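Here is one chain, start to finish.
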Amino acid sequence: MKRKGKASEREDRTPTLRDSLNEEMLSKLKETKKNLADLEAVREEEKQKEREKARLLREQNKSFEELLEESQMNWQDYKK
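Its structure:
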């Protein structure tokens, strides 16, 4: 039996999209992919800032009752 070399393995496999694209188009696609990933990171950062802003706003608008319920202080410790 003869072993197949790398050249024959390349011939046996089916051509892929990457094989049919020229280098310029491939580099443009990679650049577009990078730009989209950067844009997604910026959007995620903006969402995080909005969530933080909403959390701070909720914290500022808490009623006295809500603040008292969240407090760890025990009034009996201060009663004399």
